[in-house]
Amino acid sequence: MKFKPFLLLLTMTLLMGLFQLPHLGYILQWDHQAIISGEWWRIVTGNFTHTNLYHLIMNIFGLWIIGFIFRAQLESRSLLLIILGISTAIGSLLLLTDLSLYVGLSGVLHGLFGFYALKEYRSGRQSSLYLVIGLLIKILWEQNFGSPTGTQSLIDAPVALNAHLFGTLSGLILALLTGRKKALIQ
Question: What is the CATH number of the domain that holds 128?
Fold first, then answer.
């Protein structure tokens, strides 16, 4: 993994740990009523707060695993912009649902995985299409049958399946948009 993306992932890890402090977590979590009342930062910051230590650790592992798998593609500036774009999309689209509170990075993780897998496929790595297909199958399964109950008990909250859906769609759309720009230049 390149040094600068490593520092970005480390910074995110430390910030998410800091956001576990009760007062900070409360003012940063995605809260529908608070956002409607003008606390717009929660659209993004809710993705970086967590229900408990298990939830935080699972998401940190997911972030680092994605960083490792796609390390050859990671660049700090684009990674940061992709994370912020996916976070903003998830936080905004959740306003269209009946969800009142949301915390967790899993929607962003789904988006990052989809983004980098599709970018790899579009750059010639044919086997990465299987990663995209697997992700889409997972999302379809969750939308139709729900999530495993073990995860819900571990994080002490229902899994926000729409965040996974919105994150995946955002990541895939971003990959298509960024790939298209390159195709127009060639």
Answer: 1.20.1540.10
